[in-house]
Amino acid sequence: QVQLVESGGGLVQAGGSLRLSCAASGSIFSINVMAWYRQAPGKQRELVAHITSGGSTNYADSVKGRFTISRDNAKNTVYLQMNSLKPEDTAVYYCVVVTSQRYWGQGTQVTVSS
User: Where are the alpha helices (DSSP H) in 1-114?
Assistant: First the structure.
């Protein structure tokens, strides 16, 4: 079993920055992909960014150039640096870790005020 602990959400004004962290612990042998999803009220959950074990990254078009995903393999931790935040970035953000199974974090609220 794998446990994920997310942190770093909060309230920020438009144009501001936040950094999300997600630490994985438990029965971890190897982590393949680490990712961040988000779900805004009334909308479907969407992929924000993912990073492979080799460091390759992919981003949703809506966050390209503003968000950066990174990982620390020694700490089994994934980060999401979010800059130039917009009100439309307001959502619950979930981290996902893929080993032989997919594990979801509990979610952290990000609210961007205009």
Answer: none
